């Protein structure tokens, strides 16, 4: 099932690559470009769409879809939006108690037609990596973590022509796919504390080669502090690009720090993959970037 064709009226995969204005020490003499995959769609953005395209492509058209995620999963809200367009019933299996349903992400999933099922964390851990197609039901692992989930990122990587490609990562699927198709050096930036496990997770879905930075998690998954928020506001002021606090802001902060520390040789060219996910601002502290992101997504949903 080719979801590029099915969704062609709703998504834009011809996203631009923009060179960033200098936001680090100019003597480092590097060029940084941002692949604006956040512009694919307000909700089915970045690596969410690119992971799902390979999964749907390598299975028959489903009668229904099931997938897994936490209470703030941008994978689930992207899947809910996709299934809304395709008119396919979809169920989200949520890690934890039903009290967690009282947030904007899961409310929006329900609004888009997703049925929510809450299961204990122990049961969730046993089930969340299930990938199958049986009796017309497509079951997708948490975060799209499977070999088919790397296909869209591999295709994207083949379009890039820089020395380095940098991407934020959680399950390891996106950085694995990028490493499969990119001719230069791939770098993943973990959004999770203790992210060394991503190396193993990425190898499980066929990663070829990549470096992993694990020091820019800001306390753990979905954790932020004033330093990260100020940096995100600074980036927005300088570039006009909205970064989310869960993944892309941390990765861009890490990239900027590494440039300033002299990690890259002068003359290096770098592509930063913007993986979208602006719904990651929901539930975060108020600031001007959050306000802009909230307005963008809420306005889109209100116009459906």
Kindly describe this structure.
The chain is of the alpha/beta class. The protein has two domains: 3-43 and 147-293, Rossmann fold (3-Layer(aba) Sandwich), CATH 3.40.50; 47-144, Rossmann fold, CATH 3.40.50. Helices cover 36% and strands 17% of the residues. The chain is built from eleven helices and eleven strands. The protein has helices spanning 3-6, 46-57, 74-86, 104-111, 121-127, 151-157, 173-181, 197-204, 226-239, 248-260, 288-302, and strands at residues 17-19, 31-35, 64-69, 90-95, 115-119, 132-134, 137-140, 164-169, 185-190, 211-213, 269-273. The chain has a six-stranded mixed sheet, sandwiched between helices. A five-stranded mixed sheet has the order 5-4-3-7-6. β6 and β7 form a beta hairpin. The longest helix is centred in the last third of the chain and has 15 residues, at 288-302. The model has no long low-confidence stretch (mean pLDDT 94).
What integer value in Å does the Rg equal? 18 Å
Q: What is the general shape?
A: globular
Q: State mean pLDDT (0 to 100 scale).
A: 94
- Return residue spans where pLDDT drops below 50 for at least 5 consecutive residues: none
Helical stretch tally = 11
CATH topology of the largest domain: Rossmann fold
Instruction: Just give the CATH class of the largest domain.
Output: Alpha Beta
Instruction: Tell me the structural class.
Output: alpha/beta
Strand content: 15-25%
**Termini separation (Å)?**
24 Å
């Amino acid at each position: 099932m080719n979801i590029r064709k099915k969704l062609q009226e709703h998504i834009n995969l011809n996203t631009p690559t923009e060179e960033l204005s200098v936001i680090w020490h100019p003597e480092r003499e590097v060029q940084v470009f941002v692949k604006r995959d956040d512009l694919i769609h307000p909700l089915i953005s970045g690596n969410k769409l690119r992971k799902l395209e390979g999964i749907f492509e390598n299975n028959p058209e489903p009668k229904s879809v099931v997938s897994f995620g936490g209470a703030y999963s941008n994978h689930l809200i992207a899947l809910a939006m996709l299934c809304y367009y395709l008119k396919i019933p979809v169920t989200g299996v949520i890690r934890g108690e039903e009290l967690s349903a009282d947030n904007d992400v899961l409310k929006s999933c329900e609004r888009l037609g997703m049925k929510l099922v809450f299961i204990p964390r122990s049961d969730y851990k046993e089930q969340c990596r299930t990938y199958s197609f049986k009796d017309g039901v497509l079951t997708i692992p948490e975060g799209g973590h499977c070999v088919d989930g790397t296909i869209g990122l591999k295709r994207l990587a083949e379009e890039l022509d820089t020395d380095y490609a940098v991407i934020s990562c959680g399950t390891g699927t996106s950085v694995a796919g990028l490493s499969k198709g990119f001719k230069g050096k791939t770098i993943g930036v973990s959004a999770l504390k203790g992210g060394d496990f991503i190396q193993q997770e990425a190898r499980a879905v066929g990663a070829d080669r990549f470096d992993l930075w694990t020091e820019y998690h800001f306390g753990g998954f979905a954790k932020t502090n004033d330093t990260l928020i100020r940096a995100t506001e600074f980036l927005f002021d300088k570039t006009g690009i909205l970064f989310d606090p869960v993944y892309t802001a941390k990765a861009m902060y890490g990239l900027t720090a590494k440039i300033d520390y002299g990690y890259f040789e002068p003359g290096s060219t770098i592509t930063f993959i913007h993986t979208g996910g602006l719904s990651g601002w929901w539930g975060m502290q108020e600031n001007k970037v959050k306000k802009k992101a909230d307005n963008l997504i809420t306005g889109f949903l209100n116009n459906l």
